[in-house]
Structures are given as C-alpha cells and as structure tokens.
Design goal:
The complex is a heterotrimer of chains A (329), B (261) and C (283). Chain A is built from 12 helices and 13 strands. Chain A is an alpha/beta fold. Chain A folds into 2 domains: 4-245, P-loop containing nucleotide triphosphate hydrolases (Rossmann fold, 3-Layer(aba) Sandwich); 250-310, ACT-like. Chain A, domain 2 (Alpha-Beta Plaits). In chain A, the strands form 3 sheets. Chain A has a 6-stranded mixed sheet with strand order 5-6-7-3-8-9, with helices on both faces. In chain A, strands 11-12-10-13 form a 4-stranded antiparallel sheet. Chain A has a 3-stranded antiparallel sheet with strand order 2-1-4, covered by helices on one side. With 261 residues, chain B is mainly alpha-helical. Chain B has one domain. Chain B is built from 11 helices and no strands. In chain B, helix 2 packs antiparallel against helix 3 (58-92) and helix 7 (142-169) runs parallel beside helix 11 (228-260). The longest helix of chain B has 35 residues, at 58-92. The radius of gyration of chain B is 19 Å and the shape is globular. Chain C contains 12 helices and 2 strands, in the order H-H-E-E-H-H-H-H-H-H-H-H-H-H. A two-stranded antiparallel sheet of chain C has the order 1-2. The longest helix of chain C is centred in the C-terminal third of the chain and has 36 residues, at 246-281. Classes of the chains: A alpha/beta (329), B mainly alpha (261), C mainly alpha (283). Chains in contact: A-B, A-C, B-C.
Chain lengths: 329, 261, 283
C-alpha cells in the first residue's frame, strides 16, 4: 500500500491586485481585487514507504505548494491526498507527530539561543521519551558532526551549520515521512555533500519516506532513483531518473576531434552541430540513429577522437523547462 | 537660497517614493483620532469633577493636546526619519557616503527625507487647535499668534537638538533604540499639562526631556497664558541648544572619522 | 515500518510543553533584559499619568472626589491604591501578540509553527508567562518604591487580596485570549494597528484604566459593567482593594468566566477560518 497517495491535487492562490491611481488605491482600502493564480493544476502520484523521490521543476512550478499541502500547511482547492493514512490538511496531531518539513529558507530554531534549547522544546512538543531523545540526539550529533555547534547561539552559525541543526531538529521525533524543500539552498558544496549523505543514511536506517525538492541537480542525482517533474503546476514526468533523459531528451551527444578544420566544417551534413571550435565539434544525434551516424562519420572523416554520451541531466531538465523538448511519456 | 533648493529636491524625491504607501496615511489617521479620543475622554471625565485642574480648563488642555499632536506629527514627519536613518548608517558604516558630499554634513544628514504620511498627526493637531480655540471662544490676536509662532519655532529647534544629541551618542554607543523608546514614553506625558505631575517629574520634563519647551509653552502662548518674557526664554533655550548640539555633533563626527580612518 | 507509539495529548503533555517553552522563553528574554524592562515600564506610564490627573483633580475639590450619582468617593490615597494596583495587575495581564501576528502572516513566519502537533497559541502563551516572570522580578523593587512614594490607602483586609488572586488569573487568561482573537484579524487585513488602537481606546474607558469605573458618567458606567473589559481590568483591582460589595462578587466572577468562554469559542472559530485564509494567499 502506498504511503503517500496524491490524486488530482489542485491549488489556486488569490493574489491581491494593485491598481494605479489615487482613487483606486483609496477604494482598495475597502474593497480589494484579487486575481486567481493556479499554482498546482491537478497533480497525481504515489510514493511507497521508504522511497526517496526527487521533486523537480523550475521556480513557481508548484513544488513547494505541493509539499506544503502534504505537510498540512495549505488547504488544496481540489483533489485528494492521503499520507500515512491521514488527510494532511486536517492537521491531526497524530499526523503532524509523524512528519517533518524542512524549508531551506525558513527556520524553526530559536535565533537567540543555542540549538540545544530548541531541541529540548521539540522533545516536549513531540513528547519524545528521554531515552529515545538521547539516543536519537547522539546519533544525529555523530552523523551531522554537531558537537561543536550545539552550544553556540543559532544566530552565530553559518548557513550550512544552521541547516544541519535544522535537520536535526526536524528529525528528533523520527518522522516516518520527511519533506525537504531546498535543504541545501545557499550551502557550500562540501556541506551539501554531508547533508545528502545524511538524508540517505536517515532514510536507510529508519525506512522513512523522503520527498525532496532542490535547485541542485546533484542533490537529486545523489539521492533519488525516482523523480517527479512538474512544470506550470502539471505533472510532466514520473519515473526513473535514468530514463528521464531518454524520455524527454531522446538524443545523444557526440564529441569529435578532427584532424583538420576543413573536415570539421563538413560535419554539418551528418548531424546537428551544437558547438564548433577549430577541430573540436559537438553534435546532437537522435538516439535511434546514433550508431548509424557515428559509423558514417568514422568512415568518411579523418577522426582523431570520438565520444558518445547521454546529455547531462541539468541540460535535459533545462530544455524541458524552456519548452524546447516534448515529453514522450 | 541654495538650502531651500536642496530641501525642495530632497523632499520631492521622498514624497514620490512615499506615494506608494498612502494607505498608511488612513491607518495613521484612524489611530491618531482614536488616541485623541482616549486622551480627551479621560480629561473630560476628570474635568466633570473639577472645573479647573491646576489652573487649566478643559479647553486649554485641549489646546495643549493639539500642540502635542502637531509636534508629534512634525517630529515623525521631518526629524525622526532622518535621525533613525543616521543611526542605521552609523551602525552599518555607510555614513561615509554622506560625509563625502560637498554640503554641510549636519544639514545633509538631518534633512534628507520626510515621511509625508505622518502628516496625519499634524492635521489632527491643527483641526483640534481650531476646534478648541473656537470652543474656548479665545480671540487669537496678532500678539498670541506671534508668540505662538515664536515658541513653536523654538520648540521645534529644541526637539531637533535633542534628537541630534541622541544620534550623536550613537557614535559611541551603538545601540540606542531602547533609549529612543524611553524618550518617546517621556514625550507621551506631554499630552497633559506638565503642572499636573509631581515636582520631580516636572523638573525632568523641563530640563531632561524638554517637553516644557516643546509643548507646554507653545500651547500656553496660543491660549494666552504665556507672555513675551517666557517666549524670550524659549528662544534663548532654542538658540543655545542648537549651538550646543551642533558642537557635539561635530565632535562626534571627528571621533567617528578618527576611529574609522 | 512499526506502528507509531500511541501519544496522549492530555494535561501532563501540556504541563511538560509549557515547562519547556517557558524555560526557553526565559532564556531568550534574559538576553534582552534591558528591552524587557522598558517594555514593562511602558505599562507604568498610563496608570501614573491617570493618577496624576486624578490627584490634581482631587486637590481642586479639597482632596475628595465624590460621584453624586452612585455615592462613590475617592481620596488621594484611594486613587494611589487604585492606580498602583492597576499598574501591577495591568502588567500581569499584559499581552502583545496582536503586534506580532501581522508580521508573522506577512512574512510566512507562521509556517514553521504550523508544522508542530500543537497550535502556536501555546508557545505564545508560554512566552507571555516567561515575560511576566522575568520582568516581575526586575520591576518588583520599582513597585515597592512607588508604593512608598505614593502612599496608597491599604485594603481593609488581606482576604480581599486572596480573593483577587483567582480574579487576576482569570483576567490574565481572558485578556490573553481576547488579544489573541484580535491578533487573528491579521489573517484578513494588514491594518491591525488601527483595530488594535480601537481596542486600546475602548479598553481604556471600559476597563478602568483612565478612571475608576465608579467615576465614569452614568451611561458609560453601565456599558462598562456589562462589557468584558471590566473583567480583564478593573474588577480584580476593585476586588483586591475591597471596593466591591459582597453580593456583587459572585456575579462578577461569573461574568469573567462567561466572557472567557466567549473568547475561547471566538478564538477557535477565528483560528480555523484564519488558517484557511492564510492558506489561500500562500503560507
């Protein structure tokens, strides 16, 4: 049975419309005009217990909105969702007790105190028994290397250090479902790596379900075998990360090093040229024809070096979001 | 002339930016009117039991209240926004840009912007003034008018100097917001005639936080309770405080540039 | 995955929650001691100014103010006792959440609080208690000094003080919940400030901050007696000073409880609707 089940979820925001002119502004004191913005337009997916899934999409695609609905922060305008057998937006205590949402740009830790004080409050809020609390805390401290941070005021921590503490605070009650919204935002590369490793080990150890959004593809490629791509509030793709490229970018990249520049100029007749620099050429070849094209190039041109690759996932995603690629799912 | 031109330029730009926030004006107006009701109501209840309190009639107390609102509005409109900005700049070290400009630093720093929508309190003050004077059927002749203008002007100068001293202190003590809170609290007491307070508070309100010169004396001038001699004293106080605070500011600035160089 | 352990959300849970939150609140506020004291002193200014006015008014009447309509009479020492007690009780019942909610709603700072399995009102109430614990300790000497300076007439018996304790507690909870309801308004409008000012103005008269209720003009006095503001302000003060006839005490307590229930119901409704609203514009 799936642990997260989302069917046709919809959310429309009401945005206050500002009008120009003094009289309009006076009127807006009493009657405000609103514009409806559809953020999520009917999204469906489901996650099994223990899965780690990456939620991809450009800014404003509806990722955060979806996560917030699943965490019970937002009421949807349509559709259904069930997480751990609860309807999230009913905000039942027993539901909130079992989930966590970490937002890279918001913090739950108290700014003026050491993180440890916030942990103790969370112990009371989530009624974590003393032994379980100590056990989880020791584990988190070891995994995230928190010892030097616990006694420092949160406001004096770096962004990455703060995020590690935020994660610890969010996991003290050992949630079964973990929503991560941009957990590595603004954090340096080494720290990003640490956070990723940590999320993976938490997931493995406790079998928690993880749904993650990130701007950094590296987060997703490192953590998630499965991705859900949404764009303009609609589902574009749901499946293996590896086959995402094949589905939405059905081509390969061929890089050539030719013997002379004249030969390089003739490459155009074989395939679409993406880049050309003296004797180096980058081609885009439809997936199905790749071997044929390569064979022809090898036989007809003086080749020094040749490589065939899948396009990098970032480029694939970019193309989708810029509307250059059609999903063939 | 050059100064007037500069002021015109400064104020025009800040009014243009403030236009966006005009809803703020109505909120302020409602809040001011409600605050006014509280004060007048509390006075009216007390005056039910005593016709005059320490020589003040209800009408005269209302004139005083009007001057309080007028002054509060003027401070929040012209003085406080600039002074708060300077405090921020000192804290963040961006005052250097101001010092670099080829105009008198004190002038440039303290008259750069105005907060136009704080005009709400000025309007409330003027309205109440007209109402109270009408109600008292006071004849405000040229003598009262002149004395009021002189004492009000002096009051503004005293407030300005007071804030300038406060700001200058920021050169040494970075955090002054708490002090500002205390001073506003003291200023609040100026809603009522200083005479009703115990002696020690009267002395404080005359010499430490000079509510006496800022509110009580101008209000007295308007309601005919203050003669030319008191007006003369307030002018002297104003001149002295502007001179002293200006000296202090320059001293502070020297300390600042010396420390950051 | 194992089934989650059963959690109980009873009195013990809340006791533990409040203990932890208050500890944290005290720790935060200790870092802002100075600002806290200023906040606390803020509450002194109003009663002191009122006292000054009534002292001045009573000197104009030979030292005693009598309301001919109901026979209430106040001398200098009575005014001092009334406003001094009002100052202390006012501090104990003070609440400021309405000022923060606007900010929380606008910046989305409310969202992390919504993730917890308890409503934010509990964390906020605990903070309120921490504030009072800290500031009362610092302000106690100031009160004693003022009491020495102002020479209030002491209440006739200590029993009245004892009786006033539950009234004060009820008043504090009442004001807290009413203020929280007012804070909820932030979900609908950004102009909480004007509404807050309206509340403050009405409370000044009907709660007894500008004058003892017995000295209000007739119609205002009647309004005050029936309003919730009396229970949050003047009632515990009058009770402590022994100024309430015995037969009126029980009805006044009942009124407190009644208005508290109304406030709690209003809070629940406003919180539910407010959350919907918050979620409509984007949390």
């Amino acid at each position: 049975m799936p642990q997260i089940e989302v069917r046709d979820l919809k959310k429309t925001y009401r945005v206050h419309e500002r009008e120009a002119g003094a009289s309009a502004s006076f009127r807006s004191l009493f009657v405000r005009k609103y514009k409806a913005v559809e953020a999520v337009k009917g999204v469906s997916f489901s996650l099994d217990a223990g899965e780690r899934v990456g939620f991809l999409g450009p800014n404003g695609a509806g990722k955060t909105t979806t996560l917030k609905m699943l965490a019970g922060l937002l009421y949807p305008d349509g559709g259904e969702a069930e997480v751990l057998g609860h309807v999230p937006w009913r905000r039942e205590r027993n539901y909130l007790q079992r989930i966590s949402l970490v937002m890279g740009n918001r913090n739950q830790l108290v700014w003026d105190l050491p993180a440890m004080d916030s942990f103790l409050v969370n112990q009371a809020v989530y009624q974590i028994p003393e032994t379980a609390f100590r056990e989880t805390l020791d584990e988190l401290v070891a995994l995230l290397d928190l010892t030097p941070l616990l006694k420092k005021q949160v406001r004096s921590l770096s962004l990455g250090e703060r995020m590690k503490c935020e994660l610890a605070a969010a996991l003290l009650h050992r949630p079964d479902v973990l929503f991560l919204d941009e957990p590595t935002l603004g954090v340096d590369i080494t720290m990003q790596g640490r956070i990723r490793e940590f999320v993976a080990s938490y997931n493995q150890k406790y079998g928690a379900t993880v749904l993650l959004t990130s701007h950094y593809m590296a987060d997703v490629t490192a953590l998630c075998r499965r991705v859900i791509v949404i764009h303009h509030g609609q589902l574009l793709y749901d499946g293996e990360l590896e086959s995402l490229a094949a589905r939405i970018a059905p081509f390969k990249l061929v890089q050539l090093e030719l013997a002379d520049a004249a030969a390089a100029a003739r490459v155009e007749q074989f395939a679409e040229v993406l880049e050309r620099q003296d004797t180096r050429v980058k081609l885009r070849v439809p997936r199905g024809e790749a071997s044929l094209v390569v064979a022809r190039i090898l036989s007809e041109l003086p080749i020094v070096d040749l490589t065939v690759q899948d396009p990098p996932i970032e480029e694939v995603i970019d193309q989708v979001f810029q509307g250059n690629a059609e999903v063939t799912a | 002339m050059r100064i007037l031109h500069l002021l015109a330029v400064f104020y025009r730009t800040s009014i243009q930016t403030d236009i966006e926030y005009r809803a703020d004006f109505f909120t302020r107006l409602v809040a001011s009117l409600l605050g006014l009701m509280t004060t007048i109501g509390s006075l009216a209840i007390a005056f039910q039991y005593a016709g005059r309190i320490r020589g003040w009639s209800l009408g005269q107390a209302m004139v005083l209240l009007a001057v309080y609102y007028l002054m509060d509005g003027l401070i929040e409109m012209f003085i406080a926004p600039n002074m708060r900005e300077i405090m921020n700049q000192i804290r963040e070290g961006t005052l250097d840009f101001v010092i670099l400009k080829p105009i008198n630093t004190q002038f440039l720093a303290t008259f750069r912007t105005l907060n136009i929508w704080r005009m709400a309190n000025v309007l409330v003050g003027i309205g109440l003034c007209v109402y109270a004077i009408g109600g008292l059927s006071l004849t405000v002749g040229p003598r009262e008018g002149a004395l009021f203008a002189i004492t009000l002007g002096s009051g503004c100068a005293v407030v300005y100097s007071f804030w300038l001293v406060l700001v200058t202190l920021t050169f040494w003590f970075i955090r002054m917001d708490n002090l500002e809170q205390i001073i506003w609290q003291a200023f609040e007491t100026g809603r009522y005639p200083v005479d009703i307070y115990p002696r020690w508070l009267q002395i404080t309100l005359t010499y430490v936080v000079p509510v006496m010169f800022i509110i009580t004396i101008p209000a007295g001038a308007l309601s005919g309770r203050v003669g030319p001699d008191t007006a003369a004293v307030s002018v002297v106080v104003a001149v002295v405080s502007v001179a002293l605070s200006s000296c202090f500011w320059r001293f502070g600035l020297k300390h600042y540039t010396g420390a950051s160089a | 995955m194992s089934a989650p352990p059963e959690r109980r959300w009873g009195a013990r849970y809340f006791a533990e929650l409040y203990r932890a939150q208050i500890r944290q609140g005290v720790a935060v506020m200790l870092q802002y001691r100075f600002a806290m004291v200023i906040w606390g002193v803020w509450g002194f200014v109003g009663p002191l100014v009122s006292l000054a006015i009534w002292n001045a008014a009573s000197s104009a009447r030979g030292g005693t103010i009598v309301n001919a309509a109901n026979g209430a009479s106040f001398q200098r020492g009575d005014f001092a006792a009334y406003f001094l007690t009002f100052m202390v009780f006012g501090h104990m019942t003070m609440s400021w959440d309405a000022f923060e909610y606007g900010w929380r709603v606008r910046t989305g700072g409310l969202s992390p609080l919504l993730l917890r399995p308890v409503d934010p009102i509990h964390a906020d109430a605990a903070r309120n208690v921490s504030f009072k614990l800290i500031t009362s300790a610092i302000l106690l000497p100031v009160w004693i000094l003022l009491a020495w300076l102002l020479q209030p007439t002491p209440p006739e018996s200590g029993w009245s003080l004892l009786l006033a304790t539950p009234a004060l507690l009820l008043a504090a909870v009442m004001r807290y919940v009413w203020q929280y309801c007012l804070a909820m308004v932030a979900f609908w409008t950004t102009r909480v400030e004007a509404i807050q000012q309206l509340y403050f103005t009405v409370d000044a008269f009907l709660g007894g901050r500008v004058a003892p209720l017995a000295l209000l003009p007739g119609w205002l006095g009647v309004l005050a007696a029936w309003s919730p503001f009396r229970g949050m302000g003047a009632f515990p003060v009058e009770l402590a000073l022994g100024r309430i006839p015995a037969e009126q005490i029980a009805p006044a307590f009942l009124a407190q409880v009644g208005w508290l229930v109304v406030a709690l119901l209003a809070y629940r409704a406003l919180w539910r609707l407010g959350l919907r609203r918050y979620s409509a514009v984007g949390a």
